[in-house]
Design a protein that fits this description.
By secondary structure, this protein is α/β, with parallel strands linked by helices. The protein is built from 19 helices and 25 strands. The chain folds into 3 domains: 168 residues, 3-Layer(aba) Sandwich (Rossmann fold), CATH 3.40.50; 96 residues, Methionyl-tRNA Fmet Formyltransferase, Chain A, domain 2; 237 residues, 2-enoyl-CoA Hydratase, Chain A, domain 1 (Alpha-Beta Complex). The strands form 6 sheets. A 6-stranded mixed sheet has the order 2-1-3-4-6-7, with helices on both faces. A 6-stranded mixed sheet has the order 17-18-19-20-22-25, sandwiched between helices.
Length: 569
Amino acid sequence: MDILLVASAFNSLTQRVYAELTDHGHRVDAVLASHGPDAVRAAVTRARPDLIIAPMLKTALPEDLWREHTCLIVHPGPEGDRGPSSLDWAIAEQAPHWGVTVLRAEAAMDAGDIWASVPFRTEQVGKSDLYRNEASDAAAAAVLLAVRRFEEGSFKPRPQSDPEVRVVWRDALRQTRRRIDWAADSTATVLRKLRGADSQPGVLDEILGREVFLHGGHPEDRLRGRPGDLLATRAGAVCRATSDGAVWIPELRPRKNSGDPAPFKRPAASVLGPDAPGEEPVPLELPAGRRTWTDIRYRQHGDTGFLAFSFPGGAMSTDHCRRLLAAYRHALTRPTSVLVLGGARDFFSNGIHLNVIEAAPDPAAESWTNLNAMNDLVEAVLRTTDRLVVAALGGNAAAGGVMLALAADEVWCRTGTVLNPHYRRMGLYGSEYWTYSLPRRAGERAAERLTTEALPVSAATAHRLGLVDRLVPAPAAEFAAEVDRLAAELSRAPGLGRRIEAKAAARARDEAARPLADHRSAELARMHAIFFDPRADYHALRSAFVRKVPSGTARPLAPAADPLTASPR
């Protein structure tokens, strides 16, 4: 069928739905609702879709469209749930199970007939993590079911007037409900409030006399202090005392009109500047029983090393890259034959950190520094010849994050993962040795198509293209354990030593044919020209992405689509 996606943003769920529908043979186009009703109407006229689907919509569809066409809305709530803060309430009320419902658009919000509904278990993670994983899995299944039912033509959608449908309207979850009482709230309560707003909208609070939004929360088992006090920093995060413990908060966002020239999310310590407390280090290899936060960890089971990392939003600043490189070098000193990178749930990596770059005194210079730090990390993986390296992607990856994964010998992907192996939507040529790694795996023609079309691909498509070696059909909550099992099998595989020897020989042949330094210098020359050209699209696109404002220089998602102000993140 011809299907048009209408979305407020080309976010992770919109990308997942696009990729899944494309994999099932449908011709999919897309338009951003933020461009206004006329742009949506023009896209409908041009695409003439059999079906319109809204994976993520913050504004109502024009009435004439849903009256004249079948328009299906993806709502992140169970049957009968209505309102704009569905997942927020699921976390706030500690619902053990939730769901995603696909319903027909009509005048009343979330009140249309039900075409499909799929339940999921709510894990103890942040809202954005839950949305990108358990909710995304359920949404993809529900959309495919609804599309199949629509195609078959005999299905009668269920009206919400059905007595078995329990209709519950939930208002938007306001800051008054989210606000933390540091003197009274337990650590568990504080974490629940932080996790329910981790990406958006954050929890409004005051730190050192400044109004900021808190983003993300993790427990701390040892540090203690007067409730509300800042106790320490670690890897850019700040630790704050609760009534019975403490929590780590990775990111802060200054409130708009606060006078801060960068009112967007960035590492908490950088927002506080010299007022941030002192650094509290933690071992790379945590002792058993520790319950504290760190974004990089190493552990070892027998002949296999595991270097796990998790950065908010998958963005990697200069500091993130340098610390991960140091940890990688540490891992190489350990006597292992297999080294697993990643392996945690949610984002693997999205490449350089645009928010940190935008907040820098000289964004061009910081872009250059950050990119070189990312290149150093990727090069270290490419030059590892004494063991097999596995990149285990429990969540999405984009741009330089994909190239970090492709630098490994094997790429293992959870089946719900979406990859964006391109840079074009941010106005960039790309680096991180993509001119070596991408053609090496997918071939020259496919590499060119992936980087110029700049479309998301599912894990299944990435597997067919050769970008992924193993699909891991596990729920997000079980991915890490499955990676452990598969890595143990790999470390015991017969002929592993011969594989490592063959890998070293292949790297030597590739180096003789064209040195990695040549790839790097050619890519960086193109990127330097973009970074230090104030008229380059990259600067406007970066600023628009970071500040979440429409951009007039974005490129179309597909040949027939309206321009999208989209980014792979």
